[in-house]
Model the fold of this input.
Amino acid sequence: METYDALLASIAPTSGQSRTILDPATGTVVGEAPVHALEDLERAVAAAAAAQPEWAALGHDARSAALLRAADAVERSAEELARLLSREQGKPLNGPNARFEVGACAAWLRAAAGTPMEPETVVDDGETRAELHHRPIGVVGAIGPWNWPMMITIWQIAPALRMGNAVVVKPSEYTPLSVLALAKVLNEELPEGLLTVVSGGRDVGEALAGHPAIGKIMFTGSTATGKAIIRSSADTVKRLTLELGGNDAGIVLPDADPKAIAEGLFWGAFINTGQTCAALKRLYVHSDIYDAVCEELTAVAAAMPMGVGLDEANVLGPLQNRQQFDIVARLVDAARDAGAKILLGGNPDTDQPGYFYPATLVADIDNNNPLVAEEQFGPALPIIRYSTVDEAVTMANALDVGLGASVWSSDPAAARGVATRIQAGTVWINKHGAVDPRVPFGGAKQSGYGLEFGVEGLKALGVPQVING
Done:
């Protein structure tokens, strides 16, 4: 285990270009990140390709044992990693934030290591015996986002490594230090060259997506970038797993208890200060309990402290970057200008340092308002009134995205009936965004394709091969 300063120093560039990373909560310097170039990418891919065959030859048991040791390494450096994550991304240490994210990294490593992966006998009738195996792809490219930079990187690399692949990671330009530090810790327990982070710009990401030696790209980010990756992968017919934008709907049925669900609704929407792909981003509430839900949710949101992430009291932090702050501000202003009612927030203090936008609840808003129709990706939740469940389902399904959704009710059976009508990759009952390493996760419509987690997630990091005979 290294101290925080030693960990930061270990990933600092010693030559070449660098980029100063600033704390989005304070504007102070976090550290210097390397700006890798295309030649750095080529070296990383070559090293990965050289290391991969021996890694694949170890077999599932040995690779799983290495992942378990890597999880131990993450836990040994957990506080240092969480502190760096808090300073670079902005999320507080406490609540479902920085310490939670680092803990999830260890949990997903252990889950990837512990998930059984055996050949499947598909036919054995005395005449024909056919088995379905999954062999390694080779080198996997992982392109991650800035909102959960460590955890989503683990979602990508843990199953890739378990299945016998090498990985080249391209982190977001906003949060490279977190990913570099995570990889440095993981590499204490992995063979040299197997896992490399290339901290470059858009040109590096484009080159990775089209590189002929990369057999698969895993990407989490915007739908627009996902479409660009699809195009750039076509010439080499790469396999893809894409987890793209979402604008998740939640439907509160008329029998729900407003007070009982208020905190769950809050965290469904405001986890990571709303900067989560599968967060609750538009809430549909039946007219019978609309005012009560608004009242209870406002009371919960008003009590949640927001501020600098290293302050142990805070559970909400800043937006990670100015661009995202401006998007949230624009959408809330559009709602206000259209006559929607601001129940809470909507009034950022632009004189203070940091990209802080207060927790904001917006009621009496039209379903076609930009705050509802566009993904805000921040701490602003529109609450839309509906009269019939058919109306709510129609509004929930109206957009071209479908990552997650939720139904809230005192009757789980009734909630499940509504859930089957919603066009989303995952529909939660009386919760939202609760991912589990054992449960497959992926999007519908333009929220991407391919599954992560569990056995299905492991299979997605292999090439299916049938042994017939």
